[in-house]
DNA sequence: GCTAACTATCTATGGGGATAGGTAGCTGAC
DNA sequence: GTCAGCTACCTATCCCCATAGATAGTTAGC
């Protein structure tokens, strides 16, 4: 049910087509949410049917056309309602930690490779999020600046602060995951008596 | 595809019925993985069809019976193969951070309630995981001690260490989430000029 | 004028999981 | 002896999502 609200969040900035939204998911919001276009297009149709959006045909070149969606009052209400309503926390489902609990079953090198992949994954995310924070701070985030353009000046500080707060939190989490995996690498060496420095990379 | 491997992980300790496994998910492993019985029973059937498990009918009372599954060699191979194979990291999908990025849309009190719920959720998990680590350290975890009973003494240190490593990592992550939410509560107060201490709980 | 790369949208299939039931036997307390 | 609560297993439906692929128009460069 969050895809719908992620779409609403993006559409509160400006009207967009399904294609725009799918690009926005890949680029701007991608590291808080993500969805393929095959999910986005039907969901937009459903949201229009539910009255949250209105879609208008926009010509595109001589014969082409595209469908641009903008949020209705009902859509804004739904988004606000979702924002005010508590989240339901479902139980954990975490393959990385599941595997970690049984690492004695893996070859030491395979175990090391997994933890290095864990580090690489979160390091990559960390770099992207750091860049995001930099964009927020320097006013070079296209979506954010557009959003600020439509919002009263009195809200600018909050809007910017919450975006920053989110990404800073994600960076800290990524750093925690990296530290955890690094401790794991040390542990594997200890348990396997490999005192020599093994990593080539 | 991880449910299958979570089930294999549990069944490497000792043969169990679907019911046992569903209880084990609720109790022991529940905070690394979780599944309802309606998922477990059919998956066990499929795993048996795939040759990973063998199920035997065990009488239960005068007329009742239950089906106990034990892992085959093929099952052990499959589990080892999964353990040696790298995880694929799919893109983030994180409702809590998604909402955090748009907190300006929520009423300040609703925003506070969300972050408090975030804290409560991770605090609860933290307490359970701390208890788990205590059980690992004091040798009072039934599953772990059974597992150690079937494993050569030379592996005991690794087995215990990896379990501990997993839960300690989860505790640290929970603490990070709590800290993040607490910073959020401060931020909300700052942005809303509420200097007085508001929380009744 | 053709081709490659991009914009735009949609369908189909299948897996995993949540939720909500249903059936039946067993055990122990009152 | 019967009722509550537990053990045991199963089915059905729906939703979300991943993956793959189909179609068609546009733009720009060569």
TrEMBL record, chains A, B:
Pfam families: PadR (PF03551)
Boundaries of every Transcription regulator PadR N-terminal domain copy: 7-80
Gene3D superfamilies, A to Z: Winged helix-like DNA-binding domain superfamily/Winged helix DNA-binding domain
InterPro entries with a match to the protein in the record: Tscrpt_reg_PadR_N, WH-like_DNA-bd_sf, WH_DNA-bd_sf
Superkingdom field: Bacteria
Protein name: PadR family transcriptional regulator
